[in-house]
Each structure stands twice: as C-alpha cells, then as structure tokens.
Amino acid sequence: MSYKCIVCGKGSTSGNTISHSNKASKRLFRPNLQSLNIILDGKKTREYVCTSCIKSNKVKKAI
After folding, report:
1. Which among 42, 8, 52 is positioned nearest to 60, based on CA atoms?
2. What DSSP state is assigned to residue 60?
3. 1 pLDDT more than 90
4. How far, in Å, CA of 30 to CA of 15, rounded?
5. Nearest Cα to 40, choosing from 58, 60, 55?
6. Which residues contact 11 (CB under 8 A, 6 or more apart)?
7. How far apart are CA 51 and CA 36, in angstroms?
8. pLDDT at 35
9. What are the tens digits of pLDDT across the range 26-46?
10. Span 16-24, mean pLDDT?
11. What is the mean pLDDT of the chain?
C-alpha cells in the first residue's frame, strides 16, 4: 500500500525525533488515512482518503 491520499495526494514526510538529550533520529510523519467506500469515476471503490479531505467534502461517499 502506498501511504498516500487518493484525492489530494498527501503522503508521508520525513523529519527528526528529538530526544531529551537533543539527539536527532529520523522518523516518518504519516497522514491520517481512512479506508473508505467512495465513488470514483462513476464506480464504487474502496480507497484510502485523508481525514482532511473527508471533512471538507472533497470526496463523494458511496453507501
């Protein structure tokens, strides 16, 4: 699974975890993706959509 929103293309970004001693180690910041039945190109499909796209009604939910 590519960790990417099907609507806006939001994906993982990298950064650092900073410990108490200020030592940095690499980590991933992942978007909040939800598996959702949506209507895409007139067909009902199950895709991963980020919660910001769900909240802003950028996606049409299939019932």
Report:
1. 42
2. P
3. no
4. 11
5. 60
6. 2, 3, 4, 5, 31
7. 10
8. 96
9. 999 999 999 999 999 999 999
10. 98
11. 95
Place of tokens 């200020």: 22
Q: Rounded CA gap, 40 and 58, in Å?
A: 11
Angle at 61 between CA 42 and CA 49, to 5 degrees: 100
Q: What is the pLDDT of residue 15?
A: 98
Whether the pTM exceeds 0.90: the reply is no
Q: What SS3 string covers 1-59?
A: CCCECCCCCCECEEEEEECCCCCEEEEEECCCEEEEEEEECCEEEEEEEEHHHHHCCCC
Backbone φ, ψ for residue 42 (5° rounding) = 80, 5
Residue with tokens 């009902």: 44
